[in-house]
Write a structure and sequence with these properties.
The protein has 12 helices and 9 strands. It has a 5-stranded antiparallel sheet. A two-stranded antiparallel ribbon has the order 6-9.
C-alpha cells in the first residue's frame, strides 16, 4: 500500500529541511522528553505537527533505542490509519519529527466526553485498528502501546495511530517490559518472551474501555501498577449487563491469557478477528479505502484549529539532565 502522490511529493520536498524552514505555532501536546507543536512549512504554507525531542533528556532516561526505532519504523510503514512521518532533522539540542496533523485530537478525549461509546462507534474504530494491526503484524512489527491516548482522529473522522516509541520489529520474541499498565498482556507481566500477539490483548482492553467507559483491570484506589498486574493475571472480567453478546464474546476471545489460544494468532490470523460476528456488516475493503462513514467528523474552523486538544504543561527538567553528555553520532538516523 502506498500513499497518495501528493503526500509522497510533500515528503520528498521536505527532505533536508531544518527548523528554519518551519514557523512554529501553538503547542498541542507534551511528553516526558518532548513537546509537540503545530508548525507551518514556509515554502508552501501547509500545516503539520512537529515533535521536538530533547537530546539530553533522551540520553538521561536511556531512551535512545526507542526514539531511533520510532523513526526507523515510521519511515517504513505506509497505511491510511497510521500517522505519516514527513521528515526528520536535528540541531545541537533537539531532534525534530515532522508529522501529519490529525485535527480531531485524541480518541481518549472523545471517549471521556461521551462516557462510553456506542456499539456502532466502537465497531468502526476497532475495525480500523484491526486493519492497522494486521498491516503491522505482517511486517513483524509489534506496536506495544495501544491505548486511547495514542489514537488520533483526522479531519475526516478516521483513526490515525501515533507514537511508535515502543514499536519494535520482533522476529523471534522479546521480553522487554514496556507499555501502559492497564493494557499489558499477561505474558509481558510474567516476564516471558512475547511477540506481536500482545497487541490483540491490548485491542480487547481498548474495546472494553470504549464500550464500558473504563478498562477491565484497574486500581481505582491507589493507581498502583502492581495491583493492576495482579488483577490482569487473575483474569476475572466483569461485563455490565448492557454489553452486546457478540462484543462480549470478541473481548473474551482477545483477552485469553494463553497467547497461543488468543484470537488473532489462530490459523486464520487477523482474518479470524475480521470474521467475528461483532463485525457483521463491515465492508473491509471499503473501510480500508476510507470510504466508510465515521461516527464523528471533527468540526475544524481552520487548518490550525487545535480546539480538540487539551494542552498539558511541559514537565520541568531535573538538574541532572543538563549535566548529561550526548555521544557524537548517536542520533544519526535523524539526518
Amino acid at each position: 500500500m502506498s500513499g497518495s502522490s501528493e503526500e509522497c511529493a510533500a515528503a520528498m520536498a521536505m527532505t533536508g529541511s531544518s527548523s528554519e524552514d518551519f514557523e512554529m505555532l501553538q503547542q498541542v501536546g507534551s511528553g516526558t522528553f518532548c513537546v509537540v507543536r503545530l508548525c507551518r512549512y514556509k515554502k508552501n504554507g501547509r500545516v503539520f505537527v512537529v515533535k521536538i525531542l530533547r537530546k539530553k533528556k533522551i540520553c538521561y532516561l536511556k531512551q535512545i533505542v526507542h526514539v531511533t526505532q520510532e523513526v526507523e519504523i515510521l519511515r517504513e510503514v505506509d497505511h491510511p490509519f497510521i500517522v505519516k512521518l514527513y521528515c526528520t532533522f536535528q540541531d545541537p539540542d533537539n531532534l525534530y519529527m515532522v508529522l501529519e496533523f490529525a485535527c480531531g485530537g485524541e480518541l481518549f478525549s472523545h471517549m471521556r466526553n461521551a462516557g462510553h461509546l456506542s456499539d456502532e462507534a466502537t465497531r468502526f474504530y476497532i475495525s480500523e485498528l484491526v486493519l492497522v494491526l494486521q498491516y503491522l503484524h505482517t511486517r513483524h512489527i509489534a506496536y506495544r502501546d495501544l491505548k486511547p491516548e495514542n489514537i488520533l482522529i483526522d479531519r475526516h473522522g478516521h483513526v490515525k495511530v501515533t507514537d511508535f516509541g515502543f514499536a519494535k520489529v520482533i522476529k523471534e520474541g522479546t521480553s522487554t517490559m514496556c507499555g501502559t499498565p492497564e493494557y499489558l498482556a499477561p505474558e509481558i507481566i510474567r516476564g516471558e518472551p512475547y511477540d506481536e500477539r500482545v497487541d490483540w490483548w491490548a485491542l480487547g482492553i481498548l474495546m472494553y474501555e470504549m464500550l464500558v467507559g473504563y478498562p477491565p483491570f484497574f486500581d481505582d484506589v491507589h493507581d498502583n501498577p502492581l495491583n493492576i498486574y495482579t488483577k490482569i493475571l487473575a483474569g476475572k472480567i466483569k461485563f455490565p449487563i448492557h454489553i452486546d453478546q457478540y462484543a462480549k464474546d470478541l473481548i473474551k476471545r482477545l483477552l485469553i491469557p494463553n497467547a497461543n489460544e488468543r484470537l488473532g494468532d489462530l490459523s486464520g490470523g487477523a482474518e479470524d478477528v475480521k470474521r467475528h460476528r461483532f463485525f457483521r456488516g463491515v465492508d473491509w475493503d471499503k473501510l480500508e479505502q476510507r470510504h466508510a462513514l465515521p461516527p464523528l467528523v471533527p468540526h475544524s474552523t481552520s487548518p490550525t484549529d487545535t480546539s480538540y486538544f487539551e494542552i498539558e504543561p511541559i514537565e520541568p527538567d531535573e538538574a541532572e539532565v543538563e549535566k548529561q553528555t550526548v555521544p557524537d553520532g548517536v542520533f544519526k538516523v535523524f539526518g
